[in-house]
Amino acid sequence: MHESEPARRVRVTGPDRHARPRPQPRTGDIDDETPLGGVYLGSLLREQLLLAARILGLLALTVGSLPLVFYVVPGLDDVRVLGVPVAWLLLGGLVYPWLAWLGWRYVLRAERNEHDFAELMGEVER
Amino acid sequence: MTTVPGFVAVVVVTVTTLAIGTYGLRFSRTTSDFFVASRTVRPGLNASAIGGEYLSAASFLGVAGLLLTFGAEMLWYPIGWTAGYLVLLVLVAAPLRRSGAYTLPDFAEARLASRHVRNLCSVLVVAIGWLYLLPQFEGAGLTLAAAIDAPRWVGPVVVGAVVLVNVGSGGMRSITFVQAFQYWLKLTALLVPAAVLLVVWAGDEAVRSAGGPSATAGDWSVPLGGGGAQGLYTTYSLVLATFLGTMGLPHVVVRFYTNPDGRAARRTTLAVLALLGVFYVLPPVYAALGRAYGADPATSDSLVLDLPRLVVPGTLGDVLTGMVTAGAFAAFLSTSSGLAIAVSGVLTQDVTSRRLPGLGDLGDLAAFRVATLAAVVVPLLATLALPDFGVARAVGLAFAVAASTFCPLLVLGIWWRGLTAAGAVAGLLVGGTGSVAAVAWTLAHDRAQGWFDVVVGQPAAWSVPLAFATMVVVSRRTTAPAHARRFMVRLHTPETVELDRS
Q1: Which chain A residues contact residue B486 at CB under 8 A?
Q2: Given CB atoms, is A111 within the 8 Å cutoff of chain B?
Q3: What is the rounded CA–CA span in Å between residue B396 and residue B206?
Q4: Where is pLDDT greater, at B395 or A56?
Q5: What's the confidence (pLDDT) of residue B404?
Q6: B280: nearest CA in chain A?
Q7: What is the pLDDT of residue B208?
Q8: Rounded to whole angstroms, how far apart are CA atoms B216 and A16?
């Protein structure tokens, strides 16, 4: 027996638990048109369409309902706020900041949806 | 009445426009420069350019006059023209840019893989573009007649010539600078006189206590058309036409292709929304002042031009008149340039390039210039032949037709994979003929009694749903093109994700 010969030391290493594994991009599923790719794309489309519907719904409920309100409440055109008839105040001024605010909310949310999608695809590292 | 300030204003605007166009020419080298400014226009500049292009004579002169004559019901026009951009932002802006097409017909062909749809779209773009150019030229004639006592044909010819030189020589690249400059010119030309006139009014106790007719007298503060339920229908139909028609105007859509990517397209649209909102607060001020100072509703078309002299006679009034005349003239130039670009872009691709094939890059430019000539000269001759077509009506018609044709095509094409070429053609034909026939009937029979005339006079409320329904029903009976799904990937996924977008 060769007991006198010392066994060579072998360095044994495991996977580094501190380094996160690099995620595999999932874009292949979409490129190959797999059912999973369809789910990914479908979720993005649904999110964006829901967001658009919410914004347009708000637009219809606020600005879009005004003609009906003035039709149903005929006395409203005599009401004045700070000396200005309320119709002129609402339709000639306040409606524009409201439209811009709606647009601003939309842009922020739409970009977040796209960021989430890119993250899901493994292209964006936190 | 002195014509000096008006004359100076028109000359200054014309010279500045040509100078900026020439400056932009130094950057225009390739075909891509001519059509889409090489897709490198940043959101701030691009939004100013869109605002400059979009605020036509109808916005600068027309709205204030309509408000003076008809009161608060006309506030829906500027609201619709602004809210149209919100609808465009949430439904169309980013996907349209990501589609990577040059023009609306390009988008239709790429999405539906059909030459028939493409040709139909080309015809519609040219028709809507010419329809919209007609009132611009006509308005220019009216303005120059009022400002410098020129014959009616001078305005259209001057505007047509300047547009032809600028567009034909520099294309989209140089026009972008011109349009951006003209937004700020228009805003200044309306804002500064309004501020001065408001200060004068605030210090004028006699006018403020006499007050002219009160703001609530008659129907002046009712934001509905007259006639009860009919007025309600007209108002809602107008709202629908303007909210949905904006996305289908050819000169608006072509601008989106100049953005670097989808995200920039969204931010551009948001900035446009803000710029338009700032501008449209001003026309009601002119209308209210005009009412306080007893301006004549019969000549309300030139209210913005007449008001400064009415409120402050003398040199200050002359200077302010010169400013608003400059703004009005800029409005004709910028909108006409944008429309000429859009129409000539389509004509180049679908008509003149095919007649002059295989000449390379230089050939492309020659084809573009020939197309620009046609895009400007045809409506110019129509204006000279039909001097009293009706400015406001032609603009309204253009919005109704755009809402009934391109709006369903864009919305369904972007959000619904099932849209087919057959469905698109059927919907475009139904919406297009419906809206055009309705407005032609209204122009021929000038009366508004009874429900039939009201419903036909403002067609969007029925022609838009009809076009949508036709597209959906016919598409369901035919099969969608095989590449529809991949096209959806291209339209909706952010550019940062590396995907196969071919």
Answers
A1: 33
A2: yes
A3: 39
A4: A56
A5: 93
A6: A92
A7: 63
A8: 78
Q: Best residue in A68, A114, A124, A125 to probe B by mutation, most B CBs within 10 Å? A: A114
Query: Which token pair is B484?
Result: 């529809």
Q: Count of CB contacts below 8 A, A vs B?
A: 143
Mutation to test the A interface, candidates B97, B275, B489, B495, most A Cβ within 10 Å: B489
Could you give the CA distance from residue B74 to residue B223 in angstroms, rounded to a whole number?
Answer: 7
Each residue's pLDDT tens digit, B260-313: 888 888 999 999 999 999 999 999 888 888 888 877 777 777 788 888 888 888
Buried b (16+ CB within 10 A) or exposed e, B131-148: bbbbbbbbbbbbbbbbbb
Q: Which two tokens stand for residue B267?
A: 């931010």
Q: Is residue B227's pLDDT more than 50?
A: yes
ipTM: 0.86
What's the pLDDT at B474?
Answer: 93
Domain ranges of chain B: 4-389
Q: Which of B276, B252, B248 is nearest to B398 (CA)?
A: B248
What fold characterizes domain B4-389?
Sodium/glucose cotransporter (1.20.1730)
Give the model's confidence band at A126: pLDDT under 50 very low, under 70 low, under 90 confident, else very high.
very low
Q: Which of A48, A91, A121 sits opposite B497 (nearest CB)?
A: A121
Tokens of B274: 């803000």
Nearest to B257 by CA among B90, B47, B40, B83: B40
Residue A72, chain B, CB below 8 Å: the answer is: no
A-chain residues near B415 (CB < 8 A): 45, 49
Residues B147-196: pLDDT tens digits?
A: 777 787 888 888 888 888 877 666 666 778 888 888 998 899 889 888 88
Tell me the domain boundaries of chain A: 27-120
- B232 to chain A: nearest residue by CA? A67
Burial (CB count within 10 angstroms: exposed 0-12, middle 13-18, buried 19+), residue B259 = buried
Of A100, A102, A110, the CB nearest to B266: A110
pLDDT, position B403: 92
In a mutagenesis test of the B interface, which of A43, A45, A68, A101 is the best target, namely the one with the most B β-carbons within 10 Å? Answer: A45
Find tokens 């009412």 and name the residue.
Answer: B291
User: % helix / strand / coil in chain B, to the nearest 5?
Assistant: 80, 0, 20
Q: Which residues of A touch B83 (CB under 8 A)?
A: 59, 63, 99
Looking at residue B359, its pLDDT comes to 47
Contact yes or no for B494 and A118 at CB 8 A: yes
How many whole angstroms separate alpha carbon B154 and alpha carbon B162?
12
Question: Residue B149: which residues within 8 A CB-CB, separation 6 or more?
Answer: B3
Token pair of B499 as six digits: 């995907």
DSSP at A80: E
B51-71 pLDDT tens trace? 888 888 778 888 888 888 887
A49 chain-B contacts, CB cut-off 8 A: 415
Alpha-carbon span B17 to B181, nearest angstrom:
9
